[in-house]
Specification:
Arc Repressor Mutant, subunit A, mainly alpha, 105 residues, two-stranded antiparallel sheet, 2 strands, globular, 5 helices
Length: 105
C-alpha cells in the first residue's frame, strides 16, 4: 500500500490511488485529489456532489449509481464531468473518500 504526505497529513492509498478508509477522509485529502485531478478551484457545485456521495455512502455503504447522483444533485452527467474531469467514479468518489466503485457510478 502506497502512502502520500500532503499538508502535514499522511494518507494510505490502495493500488488505484483511493484513500484506504472513508474514516481517514479530510479536507486535506480533498486538496490533494484536487491538485492531482487538475481542478483549479472547488466550487459550491463540487461540494454538493461530494456531500451527496458521502451521505449516500454513509447510508448504503456504496457509491450511488450515476442516475441517482444526477437526480439528487440536479446536475446532468456532462456537468459532473465538467466539475470532475476524470468522472464521477474516479474523480468525485476519490475526492469524497469513497472506495473505488465496482459498478457504474
Amino acid at each position: 500500500m502506497a502512502t502520500v504526505e500532503f499538508m502535514g497529513k499522511t494518507f494510505n492509498l490502495d493500488e488505484d490511488g483511493f484513500i484506504d478508509s472513508f474514516d481517514n477522509w479530510s479536507k486535506e485529502w480533498v486538496q490533494y485529489v484536487k491538485v492531482s485531478e487538475g481542478i483549479q478551484e472547488l466550487t459550491a457545485e463540487h461540494w454538493k456532489v461530494l456531500t451527496v456521495l458521502q451521505d449516500y455512502y454513509k447510508k448504503h455503504g456504496i457509491a450511488p449509481m450515476v442516475r441517482i447522483l444526477t437526480k439528487v444533485t440536479g446536475f446532468k452527467l456532462k456537468e459532473i464531468y465538467e466539475l470532475f474531469p476524470s468522472g464521477p467514479g474516479k474523480g468525485a468518489c476519490k475526492m469524497a473518500g469513497l472506495p473505488k466503485p465496482t459498478g457504474c457510478v
